Records
---
Amino acid sequence: MVLKKIVLDVLKPLKGPSIVELAQTLSDSKGVHRVTIVVNEIDVETVTLTITIEGSNIDFEAVRSIIERLGGVIHSVDQVVAESSR
């Protein structure tokens, strides 16, 4: 099975890296071709984001690691598109 698309609900610190930096870092990950980030809510200290990642073979653990390294946390995985690798 290869992941083609994942949609994540992510919380990141307001004072952390910008969404531009987050998108650039995620798009550099192996198998990722497109990253879309939408800001859903801004609180005093946090930003709630919807992150859509599309690619040919997305490494979910690498994506999780990047988000956590940049101070974010995945609240939920809201959509997944996977294809058979056969």
---
Amino acid sequence: MEWYLALAVIVGLFLILLAVGMPVAFSFLFVNLIGAVLWWGGDAGLCQLIISISSSVTRFALMPVPMFILIGEVMFHSGIAPRAISALDQCVGRVPGRLSILAVLSGTIFATLSGSSVAATATLGSVLTPEMEKRGYRKPMSLGPILGSGGLSIMIPPSALGVLLAALAKISVGAILIAIIFPGFLMGVLYAGYIIIRCWLQPSIAPAYKVTAVPLSKKITDLARYVLPLGLIVFSIIGVILIGLGTPTEAAALGALASFVLAAFYRKLNRETVKKSVGTTLHITVMMLMIFTGSTAFAQILAYTGATTGLCTFFVGLPLPPMMLLIIMQLLLVAMGTFMEPLAMVMVVLPVYLPIVNALNFNLLWFGVIMLLNMEMATTSPPFGLGLFAMKGVAPSDTTMGDLYRAALPFIGCDLIAMLVIMLFPPLTLWLPS
């Protein structure tokens, strides 16, 4: 069978299964079973499929994933994150869109503690949205900043999706976690800049209000009590990797331990907190690993049929400059982000893209950062972004999905600007890991 026919059969069947509502993990499993029987040969093919699944899920590089997720879940279920947001609220001055700026600031800090964008969005939304509604903020300025900053968990370490991408692409986990630091904070700056300019041009979208004066001593006390300890967790994760004191796995374990110690310090470590945190972490981790194993076998079957090599040769042979090919690849991801979740996008596309990236001599680390930025956009891309549904669950009852779509679009525009900057200036992502 010609490579393009094999590619059409495998990818087409997979997309049909997704379209009829089958979960991503089971869609991978079904396609892999058929592919193993047709191309690897009956019982021998099924045995090879089992070996592929077993070897992919036991990679050491995947170990930080559950611990990064656990950190965010402990922060969420123990109530530590809302206290930190309240402390930061006291320190934000009278700037245009004050509460929206607070959402971006809190989202950036919370992103350094959680590998889960859904948990970050839910936490920020439940804490800040009621106050924004009370102060007369319109939907675009109450929902949008939370949607945008909630997705920063993908672009600021610890990033569970970043670890999975590194494991699948076989690049350094530590390097990619460090490489996304600058792009993540660049996006936060773009969000804040958009909010200030929009509120300055249209003051009614986020009405100014009298801010109660808080004594400096109380500000310092609350920052030391509720924010500084979170900084220690951040250092235990990012600092350990950046300085070279430990591996990403060791840093993740240290961060998870520190989150439990902090919850105990605040007397919030009880049976219910542990049960919910561990249970949610287990659920998310199993789902992610099932998709990861399916994607690995999917890539191997594509390679065996010759589809990967054929597609790579076709792309490289196009009479287009490499940068134009990169733009086409990213535009395809932007389109996919409107109907696929980020994890599924990485696992489906990366096995096809990697050979093309290598053939075009692109830096894998730089390309991985661009892909992660695309995944961040997918969390808020209408109509099926996970962040949209997480926000819908904590937003006021009169909030419609249309409100969420309109609120998300300006921040998706900021993401596109950040992506363009990273594509045009690769050293911005490569200088820190080096």
